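Hi R.,

Here's the chain you asked about this morning:
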Amino acid sequence: MTDLHPVRRALLSVSDKTGLIELGKSLAERGVELLSTGGTAKALRDAGLQVKDVSDVTGFPEMMDGRVKTLHPMVHGGLLALRDNDAHVAAMNEHGIGAIDLLVVNLYPFEAALARGADYDEMIENIDIGGPAMIRAASKNHLFVNVVTDVEDYDALLAELDANDGQTSYGFRQRLAQTAYARTAAYDAAVSNWMAGALELEAPRRRAFAGELKQTLRYGENSHQKAAFYTDGSNRPGVATAVQLQGKELSYNNINDTDAAYELVAEFDPAETAAVAIIKHANPCGVARGATLVEAYQKAFDCDRTSAFGGIVALNQPLDGETAAKITEIFTEVVIAPGASDEAKEIFAAKKNLRLLLTDALPDPRKAITAYKQVAGGVLVQDKDVGYVGMDDLKVVTEKAPTEEQMQDLLFAWKVAKHVKSNAIVYVKGDATVGVGAGQMSRLDSANVAAAKAQRMADELGLDESLAKGSAVASDAFFPFPDGLLEAAAAGATCVIQPGGSMRDEEVIKAANEAGLAMVFTGMRHFRH
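And the predicted structure, written out as tokens:
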């Protein structure tokens, strides 16, 4: 028995009318009878196509503001009937149910309503009922029925019909069904997650996750791992929404690092100052502010020139020509910015392997979103770390208080430490990182690593003393012992910002006083694992 089945009768009911007329005409030209509902039927008729209303098929008018129109045996029987089952065929004949070979449905725009901040009642009205019911029915019966839920699949459907003389293959229908089930799953996930938020449920008993494929990737973190990139529909400005102007396809690691870079640089308001973050393996190797982007880039680059090679550069202002020229002096994997000048684009065009990503905005570092992390057998869910500390939130705990200039560097260091893998120690001087210690197993080790980097860069720049001399230091969590703090002091730090809260806080404060350090507590930590 062949797995090919003809398409003679189609039901079209879509919210997104993109490509509808072209599809309807193409199906009609192939002799396919068209059934439709409401606005879809009107659009097809206005285009001169012959269409039968579903209400004429069911014998019932659309009612209850369109809530009830396709929930009827004449529709679902036509979708669910097994064509090779004698009892099903007999039931169809007895009740006058015609087979439906193709279902084209895209759902009420629930996600779009959510994105624009619609109120509760409007969200409820944007929950589709008949669409998902038909999609699931047609998908279950993919042995005979085609179900198309994405505009992107219209051309593939027509190509399949052309290749098989008006028929479709079983493998093709299987792929359509898989896509359809994923679509209804994503739709239900959006509804359930919205409702959990509306009801302020911090930990709903069941939680759904969904995504839409943006691109398949060559491989994952390593070449033996398969990978793909999915978007979650939130449209948060960043790597998921960026337009890539040039360069080869992004890799898994490129995407992960670019996201880390853009989220970090967004901490700095572009209306106040230019800022640049250079990322390597999801950790910053240089972050700086400046009067101009090129100044900020140079200061960030001078924190760790070795690690910056092959890194990711994120800007909080549109890329200009002077900065573009400076960036191209070394090999850089990716640059992401909220725009770029024509001059900058022209300069980058000469670097074919350099990826340039442009967005229309920066992500809001204080906007609460949900973050997920997979573990064996489950998923950890938490609020994204949007914790913010301002000048008024700081508590001076030492005999010496920070100067105004030191306070600015302390707050700068604190913003950067939030984006450094724990244990995190960040040295900052003059609105620029001068040493970053990331991901060490002890806070003392992180302080040592950061100090060593500051000394190495001083040697490379031909300076007489470490870049850490006179710096401010941030620790993402409290110092459990004085040793890490004293290591920072030995490296030349003059002030410290840390959460506080250790059992040995008094011991650490005493050590800070004896070392002549100024220290402030934030009352908030920024673990990042």
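The chain has a mean pLDDT of 91.

Let me know if you need anything else.
M.
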